Each structure stands twice: as C-alpha cells, then as structure tokens.
Queue: 3 jobs
Job 1
Amino acid sequence: MYLIVTRSFPPELGGMQSLMWGLSRELSKNFMIKVFADYVENHKDFDEQTSFSIERVGGIKLLRKYRKAQLINEFIKENKIDGIIADHWKSLELIKSNKKKYCLIHSKEINHPKGTNLNKRVLNVLNNVEKVIANSQFTKNLAIECGVNQDKIIVINPGIDPTEELNKKSLDKVESLLKIKTPRLITVSRFDKRKNHEKVVMALRNLKQIYPDIVYICVGYGDEEENIKKLVKELDLEEQVMFFSDISNDLKNALVAKSNIFAMPSIIHKKSVEGFGIAYVEAAQYGIPSIGGKDGGAADAIEHEKTGLICDGNNLDDIYSSINSMLENKKYLEYGKGAKDNVSKFYWSNIIEEYKKILGN
C-alpha cells in the first residue's frame, strides 16, 4: 500500500489538483492507495465515486498540517505500507517514518536562496527521501542549484487524460462569439505576472497593423486582471482582446480548439516560475501549437520549431516575432500537427509507467 499525501485535491480545481488526482487514480490501478487530503467543501460526492480511500483533514490551516501528520504517523504504525508519495516537501516535513518517501517538486516552492531557513527546510526533506520527482528538466536543474542531491532526482512530466469529443454546441457558440475574428491567439491561465499576458497584449498592438481582425482570447481570473484590462484600454485594443472567466469546461476547450496559437511566454517573477506548463500540452491535444518562455519548464512541454516556439518572455521583440513567424504562411498549421502527433507521450497511461519503474512494479 502507498499513501498519497497532498494539500491539493479535487473537487477543488487547479493544475496541482489535476496532477494529484491523475496520479492517485492511475496508481490505484496497480497498487493499494490511500490518500490523505485537505478538507474541501462538497468533497463527499466526489470521494464516494473513487475506487480508493480518501481521508480529509480540516481545521485551521496553521494547525491542519500537525493534525494531518499525526493521523498519518498513527496510520503508518498500525498498517503495513510500502511508501509515501507527497505533492510538496511541506507535506512530508512532520512525517516520522523510515518508510520510502517520494516527493514531487514543481519549481516555485523550492526556489529559495541557498542558506536561508526555507532552503534548509527544503533540503532537510528532499535529501532524505528515496526519490525527488521533478516535473521538468528545468525544475531538476533548479533543485540541484538549491542543493538537492542530484542522484535522488528523476524527471517525470505531469500527465493528462486524452481529450473527450468536443461538444458541437460549444463549438458553434465559439464561432458565433468570434465571428470573423482571425487569426486567434489564446491564453488559458491565471492572470499572474509570470504568465506574461501584458507582453502578448503589447505585441498585439503591432500585429493589429498586419492582421486587422486578430483576436487575443484570455481565459481565467487573478490578481493581474484589472492591470491587463487597463493596458488593453490604454492601447486601444478593446476590439482585439476578449476576456472569459466563469465559463464551462466545454466552452473553454472549444475556445482553445478554435484558436490558432496558445500564447503563454512565461517569465520568472520574483520566486514565481512556470515549472512545466500543462496548458501547452492540453492545447496540443486540439492541434494547437504554443509559444512558451525560455525561463521555466516550457521546453519540456513544447518542442521548439516542432510543436511550437520557445522565446524570451522578457523580450517584447522576440514575442512579437515568434507570433508573427507562426502566423506568416500559416506556420501554426504545421506546428499544430506536430503538437497533436506528439501529445500521446504525456497521456497518463504512458506517464504512470515511469512511476511504476521507481516504485518497483
């Protein structure tokens, strides 16, 4: 039996939640699994439908990690377990056991200056586990720089589920919303400094001269939303930029499928960095190529000049020329085909094989 210890789990939405759900579900097909997850409202209906046991831990955040660790430590004493898999180094910090431990790392949560108290805490956990599972080559390199023992680190990219057939109603709705707007750029993410929406908007100002009907679709919400909207207004791009927040999954997927380029040239902002970028892979399923930033793990998700382009997210000219070169002669069609042909390596059915190798099955 393996314990999965996570602070992020459905029915809550998000990239980490999807990752830990996919991993738990796939592992449960090969091993006995028990998940210790944080309490989420309306979890009962979700939990009842899973094929494995989920124990939810509630209470105020500060005390929750102690309570959770206590429950896990007691469970380990009373049951035969083979190992513990955690979503975050903090999830393992208070677990007292000599059982094999495996910790996933994503990048920004380990990105602390060497020698600081947080850095020491990270190393104390990660240098005492069986394996550290990095979500990209970038995250592995970052961990080594931070002082994690290189021999312990293995790179396993996050997995995705094969896409379901798109809903015709949603596809028709997208066409009626976008009408003649083309070419179409899209970003699906939080409005966060590191996602770099503002540079795409700034590039749009010049692209509009060549492509008067161009549109940039922004799906998401977040702290930077008002700043981006203000910039759109200042640059007189209200006809070219469309914002969507609380929309259905069907409509979100249809918007991606009906776009030409997924644009998210991420940057490093303070300690915040894109460890991988599952959104690029999700776009690839619909034959949509991506533009990602060189700072972060995008290069694991995008093969440069095959499934999209990697550019310097801090350089506006580079973002502009990357978008323009993909639009010229409809190069995005070739990259989009490459993206779709390449995407199956990220399917959970393939990714889980990498986990089985390190867990010994």
Job 2
Amino acid sequence: MTPAPHRSHTDDLLSFIAASPSPYHVVASAAQRLEKAGFRELRGTDDWTGATGGLFVSRAGALIAWYVPEGAPAHTPFRIVGTHTDSPNLRIKPAPDTGTSGWRQIGVEIYGGVPLNTWLDRDLGISGRLALRGPDGVPRNRLVQIDEPLLRVPQLAIHLDRSVNEGVALDRQRHIAPIWALGDPREGELLRRVAAAAGEDPADVLGWDLMLHDIQPPGYLGVDREFVVASRLDNQVSVHAGVTALVDAATGATQPGFIPVLAAFDHEEVGSGSETGAQSPLLERILSRSVSARGGSDEDWSRALAGAFCVSADMAHAVHPNYSERHDPDHRPLPNGGPTIKVNVNQRYATDSTGIAMFTAAAERAGAPWQPFVSNNAMPCGTSIGPLTAARLGVTTVDVGVPGLSMHSARELCGVRDPGHLAAILTTIMVGD
C-alpha cells in the first residue's frame, strides 16, 4: 500500500477537489485553509501599511497570497509558486433555457480545450457564482454548488451512428446541449432552480458565472490504489500543493528566508487574458504594493525582483501506454516517479538551466524524485503561465507539473505519490532551506 504521508496528502487533496467545482470555489477553499493557518485577507481599498505575517488578496477566480516574516527587509526576494484555478468544462449561456423534440435542455458554451466525448453520459451538477442585488447598488456574490444529477449530455446510440467508433468528430454547436427534463423550454427555470439552491430570490440575481461539473466523487484506482482519479486535477493538484507549501512555510519551525508567494490565476485554459489571468498586472501590482507597504522604495522593488524565483506548476503528460509514439522516445514520465520539469526551447515553457538547477536542488533537499519532460518534435506542446510570468516580472522561472493521463478530460488520473512530492519541493523552495 502507499506510504501514509502520501496517502494523507492525497486524501486531503481529494477533499479539496470535491469542495471546489469552479474557480470561485477553488479560491474559497484556499482562503479557508489560509485563514485557518492565521492568514488574513486584504482588500484593495484597505491600508496595507506595515502589514506582515500571512496575507492574501482574492478577486473572483484568482488568489494571491504571501507571507512576510517579522522584520523582513523591504527588498527581501520573492519565492513564487504560480498556478491556475480553472479547468476546461461546459459553461452555461446567458439565456440557458432551450430544448427540442419534447426535451427541456440547457444551453452551454465550451470553455477551453474540452475532449467532448468525456462529458457524454455523465451525471452533471451545476456550480459557480451568482451576482446579486446588494446594498447601495453594489452587487454581492454568492457561491452555488449543486452536487445532484441534474443534467446529462446523452450519446447517440451506436445503432443510429455506426461511425461512432471511426473517429467522427462531434458537432460542437448542435449536440452538446444537456437534457434535464421533458417538455417545452420554460424561461427562467434554470435561474429559479439555482437561486433556490443558493437560498436567494431569483429576482435578486443580476448575472451569473455558472458551469457544469461531473458529480462523481474523486477517489483512488488500481490494484494497490496507486492512482488518483478525479475531475479538475489540472490544475487543482498544483493549487492544493501551493497552499500546502505556503502554510507549511508560514507555520514551520524555520522562518522563511524569502517572501513565499502563491499566485493562483484564472482563465489559463483560455489564454490568461483577463483581469484575473496571468497576463494581467494583478500579481505585479500586489507584490509591488506589498513592498511599498513595508516602506520599500522603487530600488527595493527592483532588488526583490532581481533575487526572485518562480515555479510555474501545472499538470504534465505521463507517457500513454496506448500511444507511446506520441511522446519523445527519451522523455517518458510515469506516475509516482516525481514531478516533471518541463522544457521547450521555443519558450512554450520558461524553463532554463538555472531554473532546473534550483528546482532539482530543492527536490534533493526534500528527498523527492523528479523527471524531465519534453514534447515530441512532431507534436507541438501546450504552454502554461510560466512564460507569461517570466516575461511580465523578468524573474527566473521553471515550469513543472505532476504527470498524468487524460488531461482535460472530465475525469483525469495521476499517481498517488506525486502531489505530495510536489508540495514537499515547493515548501523547500519557499522556506529556502
């Protein structure tokens, strides 16, 4: 069986995932854990002067958290872990109530790189946030999570499509609307159902960011329960590891020699181009303001960045046993072999030799294994927030990730040991031992 420390970490990871079906829930789950560890939330309109200890700022589906040791000079360098809170899924349209042929359906839009076949014939719930009428005309937000089998995208029976196993692509526009009842469409029906679940009056709902999620709970797989299977491993494995590492760095016996930072961005799966994405000035402004709040000058800000290091943590590809030809023949990561260091000379990943050296040295100190990853030359690789952060802040950055299978699927897989290995390495980097 898997050793207890790894099992303990992944048990906690599965609880985190189950409570976090949307980016807004990821932020709420992370904030709850940070507050339990003594962190306090700062708002943009607050006075940050002299703020030390554990601090965080949340904005919609993004969260920036950091820890300032007592007496740390304003020029103390940052140790940043960059992650993202969003996952590819189906998002509900503004006018959702639709239907045809005697079925009531919900209109959805495809978010990110979704393998649509993985969403077929699954029991789906609804999650996200409602924007509600608030005092003084300022909207208030309310999270909603309906873990009930409300919807389903039914697959066409093989008798009606003999080509279904011949790789025929789904029509992305016509065949993805989930069913949830019989009868003609009823305007406002979805809104009434979701508002009731949130305990709110539908008349107070001014807008929403709602999405579908697979309600099957996360769990373990394999003869020795050596794999984790869950929705949204990409990238909640990394968010959870980052939160764990930041809390450990802030509460450990040894005070960090740096300013440890967790940056959890939204909208990475669609290019990061939003106010809460890695292309925005969100992280830069918050870190700069934290230096100023401790009496720092522009020179202190420049010094803090000059000595900074960023680990961009996102899921990676394990070698697929049925499609091994799609992988580089000399770089074939396996689950439970440790996190991968992702390299791409065309800068789809920001890793260079300095970043590799810093990450592998931390892995050695943490007693954790690691694996190299590079894409097959004939298969252009994806990217992550690493290059965006490196370009915006000008800091040394390494792209890493836990290797898994079924990336972007409605249900993904990784090794049970690797999330704990990642958290241990990130803790070592944040503390600076």
Job 3
Amino acid sequence: MKKINYLRNAIIGFVILITIWQLIIVVGNYEAALFPPPLLVWKGIVSLILDGTLFVHLQVSLLRFITGYLSAVIVAIGLGLILGRIPLLWGVIDPIVQVLRPVSPIAWSPFIVLWFGIGNIPAIVIIFIAAFFPVLLSTVGAVRKVDQTYLKVAQNFEIKRFELLRKIIFPAIFPYIANGLHIAVGTAWIFLVSGEMIGARSGLGYLIVDARNSMRLDLVMAGIVFIGVAGLFLDKAVGVFENWINRVWGRQSA
C-alpha cells in the first residue's frame, strides 16, 4: 500500500513539475533553443535511448559511482569504528576532518587531474572524497553514543573485540550510519557529474558538456533528467539495503 501511495504521489508531483515547466516557457515566451519545452526534451531522451548513447554514458557513470562510493563507505566505516572507540585519537583527528570536510571535492580537481590524468580515476577519487566525510562523521558519532551498559555486559562475558563490533556495536550504530549513507549518495552523485565535466570523456556529466558545446540544449536538459532519475534510484537502493539490514537484525517486520 505504501509503495502504491508513493508511486501515485510521485506521478502527481512530476505532472505538476512538467506543468510548471511548460507554463514558465509560455508565460516567459522563451525560444525552444534557449529553454527547451518538455516535448522537445522528451524527443531528445528518446533519441539518446534509441541510439544507445544514454546506456553507454549511464553505465560508465554508475561504474565510477559504485567504485568510489563503496570504497569510501568501507574505509569510512572502518576508520569510524576505530576512531569512535579511541576518543583521544579522535580528538586529534577531528580538527583536521572539520577543516577538510567543507572543501568541495571539485576544488581538488586540478591536483587530481594532474596526479591521475584524464579518465575514470579522477571521477572515482572525487566521488570518494564526497562520500567519505558524511559516512565517517556519522559512524564516529554513532559509536560514541553506544550505551555503555552493553559494553560493560560484553566485557563481563569476555566477548572478543571482533564479536563485540559485529554483535553489539555495529547493530546499535547502523541506523545512524544509514543516515550518513543517504547523505553520501546524494553528495557523491552530485560531484560525480561535476567531476565528469572536468576530467572525463564519458559519462552523464560529459554528455551534458558535449551537448552544450553542440548547442543542443534539449539534450542538456535530457541529461539533467537522467541524472535526477538515476540519483533517485540510487537513494532508493540504499533504502532497500537499510531495510534488509533491519530485517536481518529483527528491527523491522518483513
């Protein structure tokens, strides 16, 4: 029932958005070459699908995203578990993280391109940076909020450290980590597209730049639509993973 309601609301929302889009064009009397109407953009979307261009660029972007995002999540959670358990060490690292965190990954792009060249790696590095800090901070914060009673009981039963992490700490902190995962998905996807506009010759970001250079603003808008839809599906994929983990740990009914 929830899925049906969500789908219904999504359809209504998109209809409203497209209506407002068309009204802006009509009221503002914009030329199609400057502000493509929905019908023209739809034709551009169909053309990109039929000639296979969309799937080529989408596949490249998703591969880069998955590689950078998963690498960042694994490293950030691992470090977060360690730093959260050692307050003295986190006290030293925290100021460094707070200085680096607000810096846009794109600000590092001149160095990234110089160090790694043009291709997949610069985009992956940018995604890694974008996803790393939200997950790290959510993990450290969550570990520090774990009820000390659980830890004392585990200590009394002489539970080993790995079992302590697997059976007590990680299940207790996962809801907080999940928030970081959702934030990291949106942030990393945004900067993936930005990275592909700078240091790549393929992907959805490059598709937009190439269409702009060709003065095909309908394809630019089509690329924007693809990016938004793909970002929505990626966020929902993280939600599905979160629900699965919760069911495994008995926190949510199947």
